[in-house]
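Recap from last week: sequence in, structure out.
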Amino acid sequence: MARAISADDVHLLNEDQDLPEPAQAPPAGGAGSLLRAVALQRPVYELAQLMMILDQGDQPAHAQAILTTAATLRPVEDLAALVPLLGDSQAANALHAAAAQRSVEELAELVQQLHNPKDPALTTQQARWRLRH
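Predicted structure tokens:
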């Protein structure tokens, strides 16, 4: 059961602490629908490349939108192929998004596929691509 927030729950920043960065707004309008289409239709390796480009190009909200959409709506096999291509924080975000939206059975399948990839040659190829970029 939820409880009310009290004054004891509020933590004030010390003067020597930095203020947290404001979150970027999610993509709006045409960009949002375009990113959803990309996340659902492009090959997995292209999604990973696009997310890297968007992150480096100061568009992390767009990269996050693609990642969240792919993690929640693409087949489990695609997500299992995407995770090794991502950097650690992006992979963690993808797994968190999947865990929040997927059924228990799908999560069990995802864990199984991440632990024992169906195609070991693909995993080696993915690791090589990640090292080059």
